[in-house]
Amino acid sequence: MSIEQNKQAVQSWFDAVNRGDEAAILALTAEDFGFRTMARQPEWLLYHWTREEFAKVPTTMSQVLTTPIQLSVVAMTAEGDRVAVEAETDSEMLNGKRYNNAYHFVFTLRDGKFTEVREYSCSYLAQSCFGAVVPGDPASTAMAEA
Length: 146
Fold this sequence. Notes:
Radius of gyration: 15 Å
Helix content: 25-40%
CATH architecture: Roll
Number of strands: 10
Shape: globular
Largest sheet: 6 strands, mixed
CATH topology: Nuclear Transport Factor 2, Chain: A
Distance between the termini: 47 Å
Strand order of the largest sheet: 2-1-8-7-4-3
């Protein structure tokens, strides 16, 4: 795929995530897909999710927000089969806390499908807002203690 096609695929991924569209997320990802955070701490944030697990994350996270999570693309840079994205979100937690994180994602594609996404973000903010994010398990996904 061309660089522009790869960038369009990344935009389609963000659109699917923002809709919480599990079927579209699965359609965009390869069987061996992995999503991982590049955080160092806390331990619960050191996740590496399969495509099935990641497809459930947007709706699972949204369970503790006043509205579904929305990621906005700020900028994209691409080379070969890799696309780097600056993104941000600004959400309100059910407990009134503001979750306004900034992200850097690195996407790797093969034959038009995502094989890996690495997320770099403020783990301090994530920890101060979320107590845990467990894909597909809203009961175990929680806000951080006040």
